Structure formats: C-alpha cells, structure tokens
Amino acid sequence: MIEQRFKCPNCEEIATFYGNPGETKVVTCAACHMKGRLTISGEKQDDAVAIEVSHLKKVYGDLIAVNDISFAVKKGEIFAFLGPNGAGKTTTVEMIESIRTPTAGSIKLLGKDVKTQFNDVKEKIGILPQEFHSFERLTVRETLVYFLNLFKKKADVDEIITSLDLTSHKNMLYKNLSGGLKQRVGVAISLVNDPEIIFLDEPTTGLDPKARREVWGVIAELRKKGKTVFLTTHYMEEAEFLADHIAVIFKGKIIAEGTLEDLIRTYGQSSVMHIKKCVNAPEVIEMLKQEGYDEISSEGNGDIAIKIDYKERVLDILSHLRHDCIEYESLDIRRSNLEEVFLRLTGSKLTEDTA
Amino acid sequence: MNLKIIWMDFVYSVKAWYRSKGGMFWSLAFPVILILLFGAIFSGIGSSKYTIYIQDQDQTEMSMMFNATLNATKLFNINIVKADVNVTEFIKEKNIKSLIVIPAGFQQTIQESHTNPSARVDLQFYFDPSEQTTTQVIRSVISSILQEMNKNLSQSRTIIGVREISTITENFNFIDFFLPGMIGFTIMQGAIYGSIERNTKYRKDGILRKLLTTPITRTEWILAKMLFMMFLAALTTALITIIGILVFGMTVNITAWVIIVIIATSFLFSGMGMLIGRFVKEEETADTAAGAISFPMMFLAGTFFPLEQMPGFLQTIAHVLPLYYVNEALRNSMIYLNQNESLINGAVVIIFAAVFFISGVLLTKWKED
User: Fold this and answer.
1) Which pLDDT score is estimated for A353?
2) Span B235-250, average pLDDT
3) What are the residues whose beta carbons fall under 8 Å from the beta carbon of A224, sequence distance 6 or more?
4) pLDDT per position as a tens digit, A275-319
C-alpha cells in the first residue's frame, strides 16, 4: 500500500489516496465532490514531489497578486512558470522561497512546510533572485567561494566554474562581466551547495538572444544532472525550449497547466503548411480542395496556407505536389505554439505588457 | 552563531573595499586632504562677532569707560559677570572661551600713575587656546584699546597692561580642535553610506533576498558588517592621528575610552544609515537623504568651526546632534585631556548608539512585504 497525491482537475485541491501500484480506483474530491478515476502509480510520492503549493494567496490591500493557486513540481523536472509581467510569478516564487509571507495557503519544499521548517531546507535549495547582481568587486571565483562558505553542504567550485564555462572569466571582477556572464554566475551561485531544487527567477530577462541561448544551455544541463528547476519566465520560447511542465499564470491565477504538448493539444490551433510562390497556385488549391482540404487560404501571390489536422496529411500533400510536378520556392510547416495558446486563453499576447 | 561566516564576510568586505577607488578615497584620502588643507589655511579665518565675558571688579568710571570702548567696536557680544563670581569656576562650569577681568583698584592705580611712575594695573584675559582665531581677534582689539588709553595717560609707558591666562594648561592650535572632529566626521560618513549601500543597493540587487535563503543569519551578517565598519574606523583614526603627529607635531592621546567612543560612533551612524535606508528605499534618494542629514550635521556639530562662533540658536541645535557629542568626547579625551568632560559626552554617544542601532536593526528587515 503506497501513498498517492492527486490534484483535482476541477478545483485543484490536492488530496492523498492510498492503494497498490497499478490499482485504479474511483475517488471523490473532498473540496468540490467531483468524482474521477485514479490509477495509483508505482512511484513513491514523497520522493517524487519536490514542491507542493496548495491554495496559495497573496493580497496587497485591494490587489490580489496571487489568487488561490495550487500546483506540484516533480523531482528532476524543469517546471516553467510562464506569464506576462505582473502576473504574479515572482510573488509566487518568492513565497515559495520564504522571501515573502503568503496571505493564505501552504507550501511544502521536499516535504517540509516553508512557514515553519524553511531552515531545514535551506541547504537543499539554490536560488537566483530576479534581477540579481552580486558583489561588484569580488571576482567570479571569490563570489562563488563566498556563497559556498555560507553552506554546510559544499559543491566543488572549480567544477561549477568549468561546467558553466566560466573558467576564462573566473578571475574577473563581477562588475566587469557582460549581462549573460553575470546571469551565468548567478546560476553558478545557486549551485554552490549542490542543491536538489534550483529556483531561477527570470534568468534571461534583459539578455540578448545569444546570451539567452547560453543560459538555456546551462539550465538544460541541470536537468541532465537530475536537478529540479523551478523557472519563471515571460519568454514562451524559453518555456518551450526548456520546460518539462508548464504552468501559465495570468492575473494571479493559473489558467493552464501541463506539458507543452498537452497545452498545444488542448488550447492551440492545428498546424499550418505554408507553400511559398507556388507556380500554378489556383490549380493546386482546386486540386487540394477536391482531396478534402477545406481550410486553405491564398494571398494571390502564389503563397498558399493549408491547415493540417494530423501529421499523416503532410505526406499526403507532398505526394500530390510531387505527382503533379508542382514547382514552388519553399515549403514549411508551422505548428501551434505557446504564444497562440496564451492568446487563446487570455485574448492578449504574452509578450505585451498585460499587467 | 557561526564565527567563521562572520570572519569570512569581513575578509571579503575588506577585499571589495580595497578594490574600490571611490571607497578608498572617501575613507582615507579625503580626510587626509581635508586635514592638510584645513590645517594649513584655517587658522586665519574668523567670524564677524565674538562672545566675550567681562567681570568688572572695579565698578568705577574708568572701568566702565573701558567696557564702553570695547562695546563701541561692535565686534563683541558682551556679557557681564557679577563681581563676586569666582571666574575660574565660572569658566570651567560654563565652558567660557573668553573672559576679561577688570581688577579692583583699576581707576585708583591709573590715578596714582600721575604721581607714581611705577604704578601699573593689568587686566586679566582668560582665553581658550583652541579658539585661536577668536583669541587673536580679542587680543588685538584689547591691545589697540589699551594702547590708545596708555597714550592718553602717558606718552612713554604702559600703565594699563594685560595678563593672559590660558583656560587650559597647554597651548592648542586649530588643528588640535580639528583633528578629532575629522575623525568623527569620517567615521560618520563611512558608517552612514556603508549602511545605506547594504540596505538599498543590496536590496535592489537581490543580495538580501539571496542571503535570506542561505543559512547565514541577519545577526551574523550585521556583526560581520560592523566588524568591517570598526576596521575602517580604526584605519581612519590611525591615519588621521599619524598625519596629526607627523605633519602638525600634535600630541594625541589614544586611550581605551577613545576606542570605545569610536566603536560606539560606528554603531551610532550605522544605525542611522539603516533607518534612512528603511524609510527611503531607493539607493540614490537614500544617498541624497544621507547627505541632507550628515552635511549640515558636519557644520553644526562643531567639526570645523567652534560652536561659539555660531549664532545662539545654532548652538542650541548642535546640542541635539549626535556628532556634536562624538566631537566633544574625542576632543576632550584625545587633545584636552579633560576626561570628565569626555566621559559625559561619550556616555551620550553610547546612548545615541544604542537607540539608533537597536532601532535600525529592529526596523530593517530582509523579507519583502
């Protein structure tokens, strides 16, 4: 008999059930009384969950910054908390990190209550705060050694320097580093105690695309090392590139949650094939319509866009084009992305300031 | 409490400070430049009106004429001391800088001088040698008045003279007054601005949030920073004192009490910096606020100018400024060897330090709202 935590899809209440691995049982949510089937997995839950947030709320006067949110982060995954500026991302992550005090709700880090047992988990977490700038006149290595000395559990600083590709900069003063390098040092600082969970609050904000890619590479490496990463971001490409699990937060509420595939499947549009500068576009459009492709659009300059419901259709269209020797300049397939998911969910673009 | 963490933080603070040209300048070079500059040029500057006390033990027409002549120069605020008051006690008690005694028999001696060629009477001029400019002005005015009077009485000899009595046994220069003030001022600046940086810049940069999630406690962090502040204070005091001794040939008395006052001063102004940083959260604004508080305090608390040269209401203000007590405690202990006075002022510094530091620690926090 093992313990299984389960989050109600209706009200997000987290409840605990007991059963044997593989056993399926009908369960009822204690909060909203919704019934559903639950299959007990073989995994022991205490070991599987790194962060557990339940009915978390933060109120500032009349403003509800975080409005009754619940979620769980599994060990070893990169969990992206995606939302526009002002959505409540940093307020949430800082409540989990015990920097802010919640108005209501509970938070557990590695099974410990943040409100009462935070000191017990300090050694096991690493944090990169939002817009973090370290001590200006310490070198990279000195900075890491400084933070290393605050912990009992110590990682190998030189190994961190090597793994984050900071070797050639280790003797440079922090103030002389570029933005990308500073963020890499910030991530490095969060690793000095070899933590189990790493919180990265908007680690690439303000960086140029190249520096952003470099930081992504560093974060992706953390997953390979089995670390749990809680990442807040307002860049959908970042969440798409890095996250195993994404929670979309908007105006203090989690409005969607799941893997990238889950979110696109549930909230996104179908993929679209674009054929550029097709030589005899009107005939091709007619031919495809006869084959049952209803949603085709053309701008009259030879460009054609065809909605694709499932992937087999790609091969079907390609074989038609080849069979009829149709000439065109280029062809690409664009699948739905998080930006579209967000647009559909909120009616606004993620990259706009929707706060 | 983890002493290793405190020591480690201290060592890194020293390293970072050593690498900061600005930090080095303001904590070491700036006070040295000021000491050299002010020490060299300051003695020549005086104020337009000076306070002087007069005890007329003669109470005759001639003595009153002298008073009237002095008053006619319009250079002095003249205060009359009753004839039966013991001037030595009075000077000590009221901390009087300049006092003239017209002795009994003043008029009679002058009248006798017509028949007795050896008749002579001396005014007694009590002065504070640390008030070099004031003393110089009073001395020259008295001298001119007496010269004129003597000329009228006799063409060839001095009938009315002046006997100068220093209110302190040693002779002091402006630099003696200025050096302890400079030590207090430099410690104040370092402590206030250092404290503000830690409470505004480090907050903005996320360093405080980061530390909050590590095992270091606020107590350990504050103690480490105070250790650093005391290191800076010790360095500043040593440097300024060495300059005083080597360049100006001063005799400086460093006692355990001076060290206690300096430590209390570091705590006092660190606490003040914390409070400024608590209520003015943006770094630049907090720096301006610190300047707005420390700059006038520097002038009003008798760092550069003796309080006696200032109008009465400013002197009253000085008595509520913590830096005034720091200056007085250090000056009396290091230079004038007036330990009782230093103990009283130092005790006020310690009380101020306790109030400001404890309020600063209690009111500032690492947590966000």
Assistant:
1) 43
2) 88
3) none
4) 888 888 888 888 888 888 878 888 778 888 888 877 778 888 888
Mean pLDDT of chain A: 87
Given B147, B166, B185, the domain boundary residue is B166
Q: Do B209 and A133 touch (CB under 8 A)?
A: no
Q: Are residues B156 and B183 in the same domain?
A: no
Same domain membership, residue B243 and residue B153: no
Residue A355 has pLDDT above 50, yes or no: no
Q: Are A240 and A216 in contact (CB under 8 A)?
A: no
Q: What's the predicted TM-score (pTM) here? A: 0.73
d(CA A243, CA A232): 10
What DSSP line would sit under B201-249, residue for residue? IHHHTTHHHHHHTSS--HHHHHHHHHHHHHHHHHHHHHHHHHHHHHHH-
Query: Is B368 part of any domain?
Result: no
Q: Are residues A147 and B214, on separate chains, in Cβ contact within 8 Å?
A: yes
Contacts of B8 in chain A (CB under 8 A): 146, 149
* Residue B130 three-state SS: coil
Q: What is the pLDDT of residue A190?
A: 94
Residues of B numbered 186-225 whose beta carbons fall under 8 angstroms of chain A's beta carbons: which are they? 204-207, 209-216
Per CATH, the number for A270-335 is 3.30.70
pLDDT tens-place string over residues B73-112:
888 888 889 988 888 888 877 778 889 999 998 888 888 8
Instruction: Indicate whether B69 and B142 sit together in one domain.
Output: yes
Q: Give the count of beta carbons closer than 10 Å to the beta carbon of residue B153.
A: 15
Domain A49-266 classified CATH 3.30.9.30? Answer: no
Question: Which of B166, B195, B220 is at the close of a domain?
Answer: B166
- Residue range B340-353: mean pLDDT, rounded: 94
**CATH number, position B86:** 3.40.1710.10
